[in-house]
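Students often ask why we bother encoding 3D structure as a string. The short answer is that it lets us treat folding as translation between two languages. Here is a chain of 321 residues written in the first language.
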Amino acid sequence: MPTSPNRGNETTAERNDTNPMDVPRGKAVRPMRDTAPQPAHGVREPIRLALALFTAFRLPGSRPEQADRPMLRRAVLLAPVVGLVLGIAGAGVIKLGRIAWGQNSVFFVAALGGLIIIAFLSAGRTFAGLAATADGLAAAGRPPARGRDGGRDGAPAPEAGPVGGVGVAAVVFTVAGQTAALQACIVFHRGTLAIVLAAVAGRVALVLMCAWGPRIASADPLDARLAGSVSPWVAGMLGLALIVAAGLAGRFDIDGGRARLGIHAALAAAVALAVVLPVRWWCARRFGGFTVATFGAATEVASLAVLLVLAAHIPQVVTIA
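And here it is in the second language, the structure alphabet:
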């Protein structure tokens, strides 16, 4: 049967011009891959987009809502680099705190200051996503609000809006846990390693969330382009690279690196990536898919896992140099 030579282009245009309000309620959407040739992008555009997505800085010309899938893929892969910069900024605050206060009792202030500077530089988007996701999970079993999609368990997709009591509690407990764990890491002379690794691991968890489960729970075009934008193989290799880098950072840490600390750091990175699996499964079951808010929740959960593991004392069974 003869086909029109422009049929593929028309199909792509129809997919790109689909009205988000035409999406049936209660059903998750699988983002379709564009087959039309995409314009070439330079090096600066993904960097601008990554800063606009993951930090409080929005350079001129960066419009996440207008970015195509290849551009978003490059920006998402730069998320760990953004996390590294944020972690270094937080480590600088901790260093200043240790210089200003030499007593362990006030290291809590240094730990809280390091976390605050990261939240400030990232515009608090990950905590906002954590709050929205917690509120959405608490709403499971209730009928979805008008104009919002519902997941398998009837929970509305997490979106930006007023924060409920459950969201506030989730943020408070997460910040408290991160601060206490980071304070313990500072006392054990691994605070710099802990905060940098937590910031990077949280952004690698975000990449894993974008790679697995290309189902979206809302009709937001940005969610549709982010979900499934990264290849699972690329995300897996990035996770493996994180574990190796964490081990090397612990081995050669300037605050007393050794092989035992390297193993400890690699274990913390592996645990942080492992907790993404239940978060992904739970969000997919409750919401029917993923949104930008669930990506932020996964980032904070992974960061908390890193800090808790590094703050824990692992019994020394075998003597390691």
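Translate back mentally: The chain is about 60% helix and 0% strand. Keep this in mind for the problem set.
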